[in-house]
Specification:
With 321 residues, the protein is mainly alpha-helical. The chain has a single domain, classed as Growth Hormone, Chain: A (Up-down Bundle). Helices cover 69% and strands 0% of the residues. The chain contains 12 helices and no strands. It is globular and about 60 Å long.
Amino acid sequence: MPRRPDNLTLPPLFTRAFILAALANALLNFAAFLFVHLPGFLQQLGAGEAQIGRIMAAQAVGAIAVAPFAGRAMDTRGRRVVILAGVALFVTAVAMYLTIRSLSLFAYAVRVLDGAATTMWYTALFTYAADLVPVERRTEGLAIFGISGLVAIGLGAQVGEVILAYTTYRGLFFCAMVLAALGLTLCIPLRDIPPTDSEPRGRARHVLATTVQRDLLPVWCAVLAFFVAVVALFTFMKTFVTATGAGSVGAFFGVYASSRWRCGLSRGGFPSVSARDARSGSQCRVTPRDWASCRLRTHLVTSSPPGCCAELAMAIRFQCS
């Protein structure tokens, strides 16, 4: 790795907008990850393993349905519109969990709405972060931004267990609604900014064009295999712990998040562009569109909670001129 010259000053990373977006991302992920305990609630209503799996997977239906429109809206209307719409819809979806009384089609509808809302704010927030982070510090900045969601993964399951020790699942859903509303409050001051990339923009590609791109197929296959396995853990860890009494959901996800958090920190120390390239003006071709597109693909192949695919996205179109 080239050594950074002393006279090379990197642009600031922790701007007001970056901090607000990271805090909002943490709160929203916190709210979303409290629902790792949702299978226990469904089990109380009388759902078996198969029905729990179907209801949990309904989130992916909403994500897939809204994804193409969310990506297009971000390009034409701006990131802020999608962020605010997604978070407002997420607050509504979380509030609707409070009204579930049976395993009717309404429970599936709430999960579909949850998936659509989560995809909107999750993808838009990270695309907004890519716009904010200077290109010279993109890898570092996005790794740090991703950690704001990983912290929520580690705390969400454990805090959820504490909440359930003193109240019911209704209380858990209410806490999630409060966290989501606080996240919405932090998103309101955000304003769209021009992307930091200086290279000219080409014609927008259709979502399917990226999906079938030959050199990306190995990435999609690896991501699909990994997250299909991970979503099984996210969906059935709660019922497994309840049935066997082995360990706790909070302990499992705490260890999971801490290992990913350490990986994020180790990678966050490296700038996106080497000192030599920054000095000569060469830039890495990792555009916000490419980066967000990859995050979208990896999110849609699974109904896992948001925040689980931050590092994999940086494999897309990482070429230096």
